[in-house]
Specification:
Largest sheet: 7 strands, antiparallel
CATH superfamily of the largest domain: YVTN repeat-like/Quinoprotein amine dehydrogenase
Number of strands: 40
Number of domains: 2
Strand content: 25-35%
CATH topology of the largest domain: Methylamine Dehydrogenase, Chain H
Radius of gyration: 26 Å
Distance between the termini: 37 Å
CATH architecture of the largest domain: 7 Propeller
Oligomer: single chain
Length: 655
């Protein structure tokens, strides 16, 4: 991802643009934010296509077809305007790494995982085909490995099955390393072409390389047209399945229904040349279809994985992963929220006060955790995330007490002061949920909005709950009834907390729209949510906020790489701590208020003196970026969660 260029639009339709995600032959892709604060991928078509009326008509038909694509394994098209000066398309933003990133980081998938992937992607393609579309660019970068199953993204060059050639110049579209022979040759490519691409993707997942990889696009094209891939290392059933998908002749490829319901019935076919393929030395059709687009283009290397931002919001499934692949002339490159193609920042020098993790908590079936809370008696820890589950652990023994199911994506989490209730917010759909901690049964289910809450907190007396996104709200903790609301102008919120006396609610605002209240900390009345003050100084989104135990100071962490300490009475900044290359994700005060404890993106938790700003301790041992932290009431244990890779552990430190 890169900043917007000076010539880029600031807004497309109702969507505010934040950054560039990538570009393809047909247009530029931007990270956008909906009026309700949800992140989306916005594709703006290039001017040369926008000037072609035939293209506009075809684009409009394909958008309408794409809107009908349902199914669990696809990303939804949520909005479009084919009649705009520059036609645009908005798609869901799906959290999770791409298959390309998973394999690059972890190596090939095990055979059972490949079989599950085959069934999931086949189901997604079936949904696409049922809507009268063919994808035409299925590749590892367009398969997102979400926590609840694979999703197919990017209909950037999808074509209605009854449409004509996508461009008026007979230019081949797609990514050659995963393109069926008929598409390489510029011939019509229907649903069997997607099955061929699926076979390429499965071969990549199983072996760590594409079945037709080579050092240049002409060499790849030659292999796609004439060579059989080496699948000898695969188990018998997977070898049969993938080889059948990769048949040169479309008529020999299995149907998606067979791939989903009876893959074991697929028998390997004896390779035989398809009658429509040119001889090995042919140049006519081959050159017309590919040579102009492939001249002197070598295959780029795979891009390293990038971290995903915990606040990437779901839309109909909705973060798109970086797709750096052997380049076709018209393939959109979409990135997840992060720095596309950049390695994680190097950890800064650390002091001698390194503290290793003292332990971790894990539970069966939990892969990702992004929220954590500890009861005020210090006995129970709760954590949840994208797995649509909340796990409660006994901190004294490390034993998992129970798992609360069907929570939706846990976008916010809090424990009542008495430890009897777990409050969570679901982003799918947007709800406030109150659970009995002892039984896991639901007490209150309140539909809030389309988006859910990004942050929630109990008042010290446990009678009210503060929550936010996109507005700040107060809820009755017993019934869930809304007591007060404060309009934040759709800026969005990453953190919310009560003062120790319950009289003030501090709200960390993300400031995506660069308008009031901007990237600030708002101080609101704890009963009415009327504005009491505003702490101004962060230049980017406020990611965390905390009161000192005596209530006389406020600490805030920001995406600008700073931690700031304020006097809430005078609204003045007392101290600014710079976190270097690491982003500050969350902040807490120590039990005595002498230190601030900060979750950082470089896999550390750092402890600074709250008066002098001196770094005193660095907690290490979490495997990924630390997104959220919680402290036991005695201040002796720190718990951290977060990260985009399937890990699902709470890391603990004794301090």
């Amino acid at each position: 991802m890169e900043p917007l260029h000076a010539s880029d639009p600031q807004r497309v339709g109702p969507y505010q643009l934040e950054a560039r995600l990538g570009a393809g032959g047909m247009g530029q892709v931007f990270l956008g934010v909906s009026p309700g604060g949800r992140r989306v991928a916005v594709k703006v078509i290039r001017a040369e296509y926008a000037e072609d009326e035939r293209f506009r008509q075809r684009f409009a038909r394909e958008v309408e077809a794409a809107r009908r694509v349902g199914g669990f394994h696809t990303a939804q098209v949520v909005d479009a305007d084919p009649n705009a000066d520059s036609p645009w398309l908005v798609t869901a933003f799906i959290p999770g790494p791409s298959l390309q990133q998973v394999v690059a980081e972890r190596g090939p998938l095990d055979p059972d995982a490949v079989r599950r992937l085959a069934a999931g992607l086949a189901e997604g393609l079936a949904a696409i085909h049922a809507s009268g579309l063919v994808h035409r660019d299925l590749k590892p970068g367009n398969a997102i490995m979400a926590s609840d199953g694979p999703r197919i993204i990017d209909f950037g060059i999808a074509r209605a099955t009854d449409a004509t050639v996508l461009t008026s110049h007979n230019v081949v579209v797609g990514t050659y390393a995963y393109m069926p022979p008929e598409q390489v040759l510029g011939q019509p490519s229907g649903p069997p072409g997607d099955v061929f691409s699926l076979g390429c993707v499965l071969a990549y997942a199983a072996t760590g390389r594409g079945p037709f990889d080579a050092t240049s696009i002409p060499a790849i094209v030659h292999r796609v047209l004439h060579d059989e891939p080496d699948l000898s290392a695969l188990p018998h059933d997977l070898r049969n399945l993938i080889a059948a998908c990769l048949a040169k002749d479309p008529a020999q490829r299995p149907t998606l229904d067979t791939l989903m319901t009876a893959p074991q019935s697929i028998v390997a076919l004896s390779p035989r040349p398809a009658t429509f393929l040119p001889p090995d030395d042919a140049t006519g059709t081959h050159a017309n279809a590919t040579f102009v687009a492939t001249r002197q283009q070598d295959a780029p290397t795979l891009a390293p994985a990038t971290p995903v931002n915990r606040r990437t919001l779901l839309i109909g499934g909705g973060a798109v992963a970086a797709a750096a692949v052997v380049g076709g002339p018209a393939a959109y490159l979409l990135t997840r929220d992060g720095n596309a193609g950049a390695s994680p920042p190097a950890a800064p020098p650390r002091p001698n006060g390194l503290v290793s993790a003292s332990g971790s908590l894990a539970a069966e079936g939990i892969k990702t955790l992004s929220e954590v809370a500890i009861a005020s008696d210090g006995r129970t820890l709760a954590a949840g995330g994208l797995d649509a589950k909340i796990v409660l652990w006994d901190l004294s023994t490390g034993r998992a007490l129970r798992t609360i199911e069907r929570t939706g994506w846990v976008s916010a989490l809090a424990l009542s002061p008495d430890g009897k209730t777990v409050a969570s917010s679901s982003s799918t759909p947007g709800s406030l949920l109150l659970w009995d901690a002892a039984t896991g049964r639901i007490r209150v289910s309140l539909r809030i909005s389309e988006f859910g809450l990004n942050a929630i907190a109990y008042s010290p007396d446990g009678r009210t709950i503060a929550g936010a996104n996109p507005h700040a709200r107060l809820f009755d903790a017993a019934s869930g009834r809304t007591l007060a609301t404060h309009d934040l102008g759709h800026s969005g919120v990453n953190a919310i907390v009560y003062s120790p006396d319950g009289k003030t609610v501090a709200v960390g605002v993300d400031g995506y729209y660069n308008k009031p209240p901007g990237s600030t900390v708002l101080l609101l009345d704890g009963r009415t949510l009327r504005k009491r003050g505003q702490l101004v100084g962060h230049t980017e989104s406020v990611t965390g906020v905390a009161f000192s135990p005596d209530g006389k100071r406020v600490a805030s962490s920001g995406a600008d790489g700073t931690v700031r300490i304020w006097n809430p009475a005078t609204r003045r900044s007392l101290l600014t701590i710079k976190t270097g290359e690491a982003n500050a994700k969350d902040v807490k005060f120590s039990r005595d208020g002498s230190a601030v404890i900060v979750a950082c993106s470089d896999r550390t938790i750092r402890v600074w003196n709250a008066t002098t700003g001196a770094l005193t301790t660095t907690l290490v041992g979490h495997s990924q970026s630390v997104e959220r932290i919680a402290l036991t009431p005695d201040g002796r244990t720190v718990a951290g969660v977060g990260g985009s890779k399937p890990d699902g552990t709470v890391t603990l430190w004794k301090v």
